[in-house]
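fold-stage: in
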Amino acid sequence: CGRLLIGGRGTLGVVAVTEHAGVARKILMLLKKQGQVPTETLVRKNRRLKKHNTYVLRVPPCLEGTSLLKKIGMISTDNGIAESDRRLWKRSCCRRAYLRGVFEGGGSVNKPAGEYHLELVTDNDDFSKALVKLLQSFNLQAGLSSRKQDCVIYLKGADQITEFLNIIGAHNALLLFENARVVKEVRNRVNRIVNCETANLGKTINAAVRQVSKIHMLAERGVLKRLSPALQEIADVRLEYPEASLQELVGLLDGKVGKSGINHRLRKLEQIADDYEDEQRGDNNR
């Protein structure tokens, strides 16, 4: 957050307060680039909650501070407070710089390992609506919600977030985000493949156990030997290789029968076994 300071003889200054050391360093560096602007820096230890340090950067009321505030558009040339920041948004480069400052002052991005989420937080309702329109000018689909006393402008989706980081010139953060995004997508793809293969393996095993059981029953009741040579052949191969998949059975039969043909014959054996069991139960009930 920040506030303006009013001194004697129409001089102005400014105070910026942040809990982020990186933001404090950036503000101080930008002030130093402006030349002979007097700057005061204070670090306060916050004894409440998470005990974060609070960094206070102060430009006392002076001619240099007044000139700086005019230069960055915070006050008008007659020392009046600028009524709107929209006049700073005329050029694309200025809009990008403005968003960069907004993000450094109140923005955050979730780790890509979780949900893709970027947000800008402010306690000013009008300012939040203006930011939404500003983001939309870059074809970003910004949403707006409330959190306690704050307004939260947010972006969802990896593509939207990477585009925002590119717009504000956060290229190092963009590379880190993309690397984490790739790792996440590869991990998710591997997990899907493993889960799919695990499910397929379970289906294969369950089908094989069921088929072997049916074939044993047909053999014990003398039904198997009365079946066609083709069905007897696939029954013998399945009993000899109970753990084999359909594709492996194709190889064991030297490719004479395809997967669909083998699957059809095994289903036929199961149907014959089920019909035989139904017939036997019917005879026993008579």
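fold-stage: in (second)
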Amino acid sequence: MVGAEGAASEAPAIETRGLKKHFGRIRAVDGVDLTVPRGSIYGLIGPNGAGKTTCFSLICGWLRPTAGTVSVLGRNPRHIADLKGRLSALPQDALFPPNTSILASLVYYARLQGLPKAEARREAERVLSLVGLASWGKVRASALSHGMHKRVGLAQAFIGNPELVLLDEPTAGLDPKSAAHVRETIGALKDRATVVISSHNLFELEKMCDHAAILSKGRIIASGTMEELTAADSEVVIELGAAPPPGLTERIEGIAAVRGATLDGQRLIVHFSLEGRSPAEVTTVVLRESLEHGAQILAVSRGKGLERTVLEVT
């Protein structure tokens, strides 16, 4: 028999059922059923006003639901003590005391989690190093650029190695090098923590996340693994360097695993079922048949991409 603690440890990182939050007549969140697997990097996608930030606030326990339930690491997020040190969140525009050094601020936040003074300092230095700011500890927050503020905020979110980290637009405003460093840092957390990311950068989410949900007008309109959402395991797109030779689609459709082939200008879109084969094996056969039929190939991509998926469903 599994006890309460065991059941909580086996629960998804986040689970909501029928979750609603209304502000007067505005239905910011309108019946969201969300399941975030433990150890995943999960993308929360949607335009401005879709309900992403409200969902974050409900998950963190900052807002009380109008209806429905929220479970975070098997606990009610309104019971703050149950999640102390286990849940961390970075709002989009987190600010720090302007006249305090960033190391002192991080030590203070670590102390709030119950760490002794010496351990809190070591932890603050660790997370600064994690985001590439090891030598910036003595700098006051007022001297930081917007990008540096974002990285310090990320460091704060990582204090104490929380089990669940919620990040709202973590790379917004960062230069390409800093953004790449943040993505690498987040990627290193996979399987060690659950990370939920809200972002408008679909290319970035597609590369980082293994699961995602697409929100529109307070509701989830699509969710699943990134492979499912982008059809990465059931579609290949081939960019042709010249007009497709006659009969190309018919030849491709003659391949056993192929369910259909269509042309969109000089793009050959092939839909397939794996039938015991890997995507690489099916793609190899499709490319070989295309070349033997006289097609000139410029590029190959798996799936339709997250951007196309979002445009199709929103």
